[in-house]
Amino acid sequence: MKVLVVGGGGREHAIVWALSKSPKVTQLYCAPGNGGIAALAECVPIKATDVEAMVNWAVKNAMDFVVVAPDDPLALGMVDALEAAGIPAFGPRANAAVIEASKVFSKHLMTKYHIPTAKYQAFTELDAALDYIRREGAPIVVKADGLALGKGVVVAQTVSEAEEAARAMMADGKFGAAGARVVVEECMTGPEVTVLCFSDGEHLVPMPSSRDHKRVFDGDSGPNTGGMGAISPAPGYTPVLAAQCMEEIFLPTIAALKAEGRPFQGVLYFGLMLTPQGPKVVEYNARFGDPECQAVLSLLESDLMDIFLACRAGTLDQADIRWRDGSACCLVLASGGYPAKYQTGYPISGLDQAGETATVFHAGTRRAENGAILTSGGRVLGVTAVGDTLASAIDSAYRSASHVSFQDMHFRTDIGRTF
């Protein structure tokens, strides 16, 4: 099969890496790809959000299957457009991807179908949002309604901080149209867990749990990022909790989307908080998380292409999905200054040495004409290691990452050690 993966980050590198091991995949492409993906697939210089150009290229080059990995093209309807052009695709259609693209939609869906989540109100007027914040007090959470690169959430510890966040989103246009509406919700407490699930619209199969570390500095301090590292499975997510989440959250969500005429085929991301009152939904994503994907797929023993095909065919309940025992840790190496202003174009050394003991997934990299790998983004690499225990996976990831160097490189020293 000729397969195209849409996207160019660490998540897409992990997907390409897994698909490259499938005997069904004979030719592999990625658009736009990155410096590391280029070693496994032919990179195509098309922006992930350019739906028309992507579909035209896929048709012209007779792709047998397309994997749409990032949130933006899913929300823009790339899967719909590919299917309309006769090309099978993995990922939800736009009317199902809205579960991530609109937090207002997802909160209303959870309320309607009694799926446990935080108490909230949605607002289109700033003054009403400010009044609600003042009445409820802090701590309180302010979320931009739309897609904001994983940075549209502020967990405010004071009323003034929450007011500032609401003004930045609604009045100052910090996230553009994504912040025109906001959700203000209670601040839940407890450990967070991510569970990624394959879905064919009817059936659902959870992957091993994971935990993402979103804040940029040690001790979960500093601003939110797209993710500074992840471990899998997540400590404390017991079989009893997994069964409870399946019954109260996972299956009801898939059933709710189907009942709304929005059957979900693809990967549905459940961001959960294990509160004293039980597991509750923090957020949904309509695709693999990043860097959770890198950690979780490192544990997959089955053929990922077979799983993707089963999701699209509605036969996920018949798929052979196996995971290796043990744990995985993905450590993100970022550009200094990320998630604010940072410089790019720096050469990266030590990749071969790191790759001897871990899998180095590229995110913000590009390959220079002389073959050198240069930094080209905020999150640059995801050094991912597996081990029989979580401690051994974490140690291996850090030892492997110690070989890598580029100017102003930044990483957290407590991934998997802070809960």
Automatic annotation (TrEMBL):
One of its GO terms (biological process) is 'de novo' IMP biosynthetic process. The keyword Phosphoprotein does not apply. Keywords: ATP-binding, Ligase, Manganese, Metal-binding, Nucleotide-binding, Purine biosynthesis. SMART domains: GARS_A, GARS_C. Its cofactor is Mg(2+); Mn(2+). Gene3D superfamilies: 3.40.50.20, ATP-grasp fold, A domain, ATP-grasp fold, B domain, Phosphoribosylglycinamide synthetase, C-terminal domain. GO terms for molecular function: ATP binding; metal ion binding; phosphoribosylamine-glycine ligase activity. It catalyses: 5-phospho-beta-D-ribosylamine + glycine + ATP = N(1)-(5-phospho-beta-D-ribosyl)glycinamide + ADP + phosphate + H(+). It comes from the Bacteria. Its EC number is 6.3.4.13. Residues 107-313 form the ATP-grasp domain. Pathway: Purine metabolism; IMP biosynthesis via de novo pathway; N(1)-(5-phospho-D-ribosyl)glycinamide from 5-phospho-alpha-D-ribose 1-diphosphate: step 2/2. Belongs to the GARS family. HAMAP family: GARS. PANTHER family: PHOSPHORIBOSYLAMINE--GLYCINE LIGASE (PTHR43472), PHOSPHORIBOSYLAMINE--GLYCINE LIGASE, CHLOROPLASTIC (PTHR43472:SF1). NCBIfam families: purD. This is Phosphoribosylamine--glycine ligase. It comes from Intestinimonas butyriciproducens. The lineage of its organism: Bacteria, Bacillati, Bacillota, Clostridia, Eubacteriales.
